[in-house]
Specification:
Largest sheet: 5 strands, mixed
Number of strands: 14
Number of helices: 7
Strand content: 35-45%
Helix content: 10-25%
Radius of gyration: 23 Å
Distance between the termini: 13 Å
């Protein structure tokens, strides 16, 4: 069991809080899969892949096996593996059953900006600045007035700032997810039930009467949790995915790890989560 951060967008946070979302999908990559073997080179030594080799291996992958968090599969040999019959791959998926995930999200905090001594950007060699919190008080709802980033002419004034989720410290998280299931599949292989578990909502948009005069509800599925008239949950999920990741990501149909989880509306270090 491990404690890990996990980042969600505002619509997904709303779905988690409302109890509509109990599943999420994350694209597998060389970084988050933590591959330690990626086929053999000419000398029979294991090699780790770059992004291009990994993408080719996933597009040609077969015989997936997932056991105790370790994913193994085979592909046809890569160009550098002349004479090999198969390329064998292994890596550890980023999440496992029992893991506790503390949710990162956009939040707002009072603070100011200070230059980081001796730190400059790689490009342009400009001074780097760091946000300094002036209070532990935070809010998840936008204050009446706030700054989205460092004010170039007035960085030292203490005021409300919008802070991106990737900067959220563990102590401010209000949601904890307990992983209950994992599986590997292509993005487009999502089932109707899984799409609903991703937070897609069903809405009744009308009622008609069938041949036996019984009332039949007409339903639609919403990808944005406020409106929509998609005929299936998968259709709505595709719209949502493209909004978050771009249409090319859906068309690429990548391998993803699908996580099922239980949501606890409490900080990961709270007594409630510790007792879960």
């Amino acid at each position: 069991m491990a404690d890990r951060p996990i980042l969600f967008s505002a619509p997904m946070i709303a779905a988690l809080l409302a109890g509509h979302k109990t599943m999420t999908r994350r694209i597998l990559s060389p970084e988050n899969l933590r591959i330690w073997t990626g086929g053999l080179d000419h000398g029979g030594r294991h090699v780790k892949p770059d992004a291009g080799l990994f993408a080719a291996a996933m597009n040609n992958a077969r015989s997936f096996r997932l056991c105790d968090g370790v994913l193994a599969w085979v592909t046809d040999p890569a160009p550098h593996q002349r004479g090999a019959a198969l390329a064998q791959w292994q890596g550890r998926i980023p999440y496992n059953i029992g893991d506790r995930l503390w949710v990162r999200e956009t939040y707002y905090q009072i603070g100011h900006w200070e230059p980081i001594e001796g730190a400059v950007t790689r490009k342009g060699r400009r001074q780097k600045w760091g946000f300094v919190a002036d209070s532990d008080e935070i809010t998840f709802n936008p204050p009446a007035e706030y700054r989205k980033g460092r004010h170039a002419a007035d960085p030292s004034t203490s005021c409300w700032h919008q802070r991106l989720g990737r900067f959220m410290p563990r102590k401010y998280s209000r949601l904890t997810l307990i992983v209950s299931g994992t599986k590997i599949e292509r993005l487009q292989d999502i089932s109707e039930a899984d799409a609903i578990s991703e937070g897609i909502q069903q809405k009744i948009i009308g009622v008609h009467h069938g041949s036996d005069d019984r009332a039949v509800s007409q339903v639609a599925y919403s990808a944005d949790f406020t409106s929509g008239a998609c005929p299936t949950a998968i259709w709505a999920f595709r719209i949502l995915w493209c909004d978050l990741h771009g249409g090319e990501s859906w068309r690429a149909n990548p391998e993803v790890v699908a996580l099922s989880f239980r949501v606890i509306r409490a900080n990961i270090d709270s007594d409630e989560v510790q007792a879960a």
